[in-house]
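I'm stuck. Protein, please.
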Amino acid sequence: MKENFFVDMFCKSINHMSTEKWAWPEHWDVQRKFKFLDECMEYAEKTELYEQCTIIRDVKETIKNKTR
């Protein structure tokens, strides 16, 4: 039961990243954001959450474009 709760919360959190109603913690630098997203991607791939993989990839791309 706990795993299902965690997967549900993970999906909701990642899905929320596809909206404009969320923000990074102010004290996180670009490296911390990428580390977080890389770890999320690893979990999403491992659990076959491919929709969330797409969102994570898009967020990483947005960060890359903003730092250029």
Observations:
- The chain is about 70% helix and 0% strand.
- The CA atoms of residues 31 and 37 lie 10 Å apart.
